[in-house]
Amino acid sequence: MDQRTDNKYISPEAVVAEMKKNNVTHVVCLPDSETNWLYVLLQAEPSLTLVPVSREGLAFSTAAGLWTGGATPIIMIQNTGMMEAGDSMRGWGVGFNIPVVVIVGYRGWTRHGVTADTAAVYIERHLNAFNINYYFVESDADCARISIAFEDANRTKRPVAVLVCDEYHGSNR
Amino acid sequence: MINTADMLKIFQRYRGDAIVVPGHGGRHWINISTKPNLDAIIGGGHPGMGGQASFALGLALAQPNRKVVLFDSEGDLLMGFGVLATIADRQPKNFYHFLLDNECYGLTGGQPVPNGKNMRYDVIARGTGYPSTYNFVDIEDFSSNIERIMAQPGPVFVAMKVIPEINNLPIDKRIPWQTRRPIDVLKDLRKELGVAR
Predict the structure, then answer these.
(1) Helix, strand, coil share (%) of chain A residues, nearest 5
(2) How much is the pLDDT for A60?
(3) How does pLDDT run across A16-74, given as a tens digit for each residue?
(4) Which residues, including other chains, have CB under 8 Å from residue B90's CB and lie 6 or more apart?
(5) Could you tell me the domains of chain A?
(6) Does A57 touch chain B (CB under 8 A)?
(7) Residue B182 and residue A55: Cβ atoms within 8 Å?
(8) Is the pLDDT assigned to residue A87 strictly greater than 80?
(9) Is the per-residue pLDDT at A116 higher than 80?
(10) Which one, out of B16, B62, B99, B177, has a CA that is 20 to 30 A from the CA of A36?
(11) Nearest residue in chain A measured CA to CA from B76
(12) What is the overall mean pLDDT for chain B?
């Protein structure tokens, strides 16, 4: 079975389409294992500017500056980095009412059995501790939730997370 | 070493319509600036230390036709040192990165930053890819170069050794100098830039 045509997976094209639909101008990112081919698409997309950060905490302060200046940033990091960025998210994101959507690679996500990866064990608890709303995206059919996340962020004026639960499938080819 | 307030008074003459992120220089800049709605006076460590440079970079990328001037501090920069790589990667022509280096954490009692006396931040910035870097230890040198610095394309990095201003008071005894809440500062700035919605 070709993973790219099976509706059970996320295609990078669907994610990029959602970014364009929501007028994203800048993608503040630190690549992770789940987003290899998505990154390639982002580099090639003329309407998007990639802003590579070297540590995830800097993503929130960068996004705060972009938004303040009138751009529409999106952040793309892994769940490990989302936790590393905690205080930056508190101060630069939540504290400054920045309505930024954070695409979070859900390393360790599994629907079945025991969750073995502590990055997966703690990420939702981390988001809940900061009162960050989040949406699961497991397939192309779920990608419309990215737009819902943008509406949520703009309405609440807070960061909102999109947890990408597809690891080594659609985004990796 | 340079007196921060004196340096800012000289800089003010060459500010033009630049957005200024004054960082820990904000306590002086607030009394010097003639364009408060273009000042992102958000406090040095208030939103979270380590993010001033990346915040200013974001502003510069969002407003490519307007200069953005940052007065960073070495303690803040050290916490997010990787930002130099991102700035060098993006090469924003409108970005002017000044560093107020007092070799210590002034707000917590003056404890030294790691290797504070030996760090050459201008050399590090040059090594990451800033095309123009400067290092000043006296106000006369700064004064004779600032016009040229602001006239050239960025990114420019200017390291300055400044006189430490140590605060030993407990947090609840300090007299606040900011006149607006940081979120109101950002609101005013967005309105001034015409991007408020």
Answers:
(1) 45, 15, 40
(2) 98
(3) 999 999 999 999 999 887 777 888 899 999 999 999 999 999 999 999 999 999 999 99
(4) A51, B57, B61
(5) 12-21+32-108+123-164 (3.40.50.970)
(6) yes
(7) no
(8) yes
(9) yes
(10) B62
(11) A58
(12) 94
**Where would I find the beta strands (DSSP E) of A5-153?**
26-29, 49-52, 73-78, 101-105, 134-137
Nearest to A69 among B42, B58, B90 (CB): B58
Return the residue of A nearest to B184 by Cα: A96
Percentage with pLDDT > 90 across chain A: 78
Q: What does the domain layout of chain B look like in residue ranges? A: 4-193
Name the A residues in 12-31 with CB < 8 Å from any B CB: 25-26
A57 and B48 in contact by Cβ < 8 A? yes
How far is residue B9's CA from residue B28's CA, in Å, rounded to a whole number? Answer: 9
| CATH 3.40.1280.10, applies to B4-193 | no
What are the C-alpha distances in Å from B21 to residues B16, B58, B95? Answer: 14, 12, 11
Flag if A69 and B62 touch (Cβ within 8 Å).
Answer: yes
